[in-house]
Amino acid sequence: MLLLAPNEYQLMQAEAPNVPEAEIKSAVRWKLKDMLSYPLDQATVDVVDIPAAPSGAGRGHYMYAVAARNEVVKGYMDHFESTGAKLEVIDIPELAQRNIATLLEEEGRGVALLSFNDDGGLLTFTAGGELYYARQIEINAAQLTAADEEQRQHNFERLVLELQRSLDNFERQFNYVTVNRLVIGPMAGQAVLEEYLRENLYIQVASLDLSEVMNLAAVEGLEDPVMQAQCFLALGAALREETTV
Q: Are 214 and 230 part of one and the same domain?
């Protein structure tokens, strides 16, 4: 199992092609021709379905396309092969986070999950175990715990603006999905951030302790939110059920 870094792939939304299931991936691949910054023949592409509205009316049916350079994928596969290990799955953070979000969902409702690490923030919207919407946020964990109070406040305000825009955009695109809360993943300063977001967002806000949804007793130190944050996406990736690259 391997998770690509944010700068090693592109996640793009594309309209689902009206072709037989066996031809979907190649049809979506062709749609990416003008969306990639490198030639299409240098790309490894996979697709993730976005569930359509139950009524079939309104918004069209879309999919997520994941594209990574062949050289990046081959480099990892060659590295694993050279060590004698077998690389069965190459995944992305959005899908790893979806796996954890699935554990938090309430019957008939979706959930927004927000996490932070050294690379930045990741916001996902899921329902019924499916990823509907995801976006990277260019604010990292260190910026939200900065010693300088003025700088920290500025970053909190930026984050609220990003979240408000994302919540509004999600509601417009997926008005058939009810998301009733935003959950903050484990991190240093989690309680402070939760209080600030509660005061500045219209949605219910809660903090996540992974020990409430996973058995972490076998791993020493994982009761610490900072350690949970460091392992967050890796734990999410480990929940994946599919076994294909």
A: yes
pLDDT band at residue 57 under the 50/70/90 scheme: low
The CA-atom distances, in angstroms, between 41 and each of 16, 35, 165, 203 are 21, 13, 35, 43
Q: What are phi and psi of 171, to 5 degrees?
A: -65, -35
In sequence order, what are the residues at sequence separation of 6 or more whose Cβ sits closer than 8 angstroms to the Cβ of residue 7? Answer: none
pLDDT digits (tens, 9 = 90+) for 163-222: 999 999 999 999 999 999 999 999 999 999 999 999 999 999 999 999 999 988 878 888
CA distances (Å), origin 78, targets 14, 30, 50, 83, 220: 31, 27, 32, 9, 33
Choose the most confident range, by mean pLDDT, from 136-145, 221-230, 233-242.
136-145
Report the alpha-carbon distance of residue 64 to residue 48 in Å, rounded: 5
DSSP, residue by residue, 153-221: HHHHHHHHHHHHHHHHHHHHHTTTS-EEEEEEPS-TTHHHHHHHHHHH-SSEEEE--GGGTS--TTSTT
DSSP lists the bridge partners of residue 126 as 111, 131
> Residue 75: which domain range?
2-91
Same domain, 162 and 60: no
**CA nearest to 204, candidates 179, 175, 182:** 182
Number of domains the chain contains: 2
What's the mean pLDDT when you consider all of the chain? 92
Give the strand pairing for 179-184 and 110-116. Answer: parallel
Could you tell me the CATH number of the domain that includes residue 25? 3.30.420.380
